[in-house]
Amino acid sequence: MDASPLDVNAVRADFPILDTRIGDAPLVYLDSGATSQKPRAVLDAERRFLETANSAVHRGAHTLAAEATELFEDARTAVASFVGADEETLVWTSGATAALNLVAYSIGNATAGRGGAAASAFAIRPGDEIVFTESDHHANLIPWQELAARTGAVTRAIPVHDDGTLDLAAAAEIIGERTRIVAFPHVSNVLGIVNPVAELTALAHEVGALAVLDACQSAPHLPLDLPATGVDFAAFSGHKMLGPYGIGGLYGRAELLDALPPFLTGGSMVTTVTLEKADFLPAPHKFEAGTQPVSQAVALAAAVRYLDGLGMDVLHARERELEKRMRDGLRQLPGIRLLGDAPAGVERVALASFDVDGVHAHDVGQFLDSRGVAVRVGHHCAQPLHRRFGITASVRASASVFTTEDEIDTFLDAVSGVRSFFGADA
Prior knowledge:
alpha/beta, Aspartate Aminotransferase, domain 1, 2 domains, 7-stranded mixed sheet, 4-stranded antiparallel sheet, 16 helices, EC 2.8.1.7, Aminotrans_V_PyrdxlP_BS, pyridoxal phosphate, PyrdxlP-dep_Trfase_major
């Protein structure tokens, strides 16, 4: 019997896609770490906007334009509040990848002399160091590699222990007087481990470096107060937190967004334009050139209101139970190697990646799919981390607000049959 205060059956009724069957089996969706399913409240919000208020924002004086603009900015307020921030510190982007690239390329523009005196503090010089971690998603690694290549900076990586936790002693040695940026994931998208944001941010700030947080895997699962963490910038993605595709957010401390020069330029982010130059709007609008994802922003606001209604503390507590059930079950299966199997006291979200001895991850995924279980297979855009553990690919199962204990058990039962099916247990 479910002892959680969350009525999971009522939640499941809000997600139409969960009625899907894969062949003869009911869908067990354990790929929310890649993309989450959407409740009716989100689907209806976007549809309602498109049917009743669809118009370009910040551009027209007619009734629909005014209504669309109000809904768009109300959505900014709602999403900013969800992560503990003020609306002027939230920039709409197409997703977390775009948000992280925005920071990296805007810093590159500052390095090139754009933005004036205020922006000069961001400039990266040859020999400066940009630090990320061995567990970063490619979206929080490659933009910094590219920035280093353009500026002559050096990249350094904080290593990961065998149990998946970051080597904080090494981090303290690596982060030094030449460090300008420290980028790291709040939650590893492969390991599910919640990293020590306060400690890493303090190490960055002690040497005057910027702390940049990838919050993609924390925003759907943990209560967030980004300003309270002390990070300078943070990125998150709507489609991983019950929202639609094509929308995400960049949080930045107000004074930093004000000083940072824009990356994308064009319409809607300017005050005055002549044939010689342009003057830009204040943040966040100076980072929002062109046509904005208006219906998606409205739908993301519906998603965060849905999550707030369930209670993020409640969701996190429940997912810890599911995570333990999943991880304990996998540990008991022969031939299964969990990646980053840190001690029980390490905080996690309900996500686990594993390798099946003698069976390729893609074969495991196809076998599970034949039983209705949807998981992620591959390197999960984290090739360096997989290389660290001596493999090229893994299987990842990740739960969400609608996941049940019975679904975890169905998943474990399916995994238990993989090696015998492929003759790997001989």
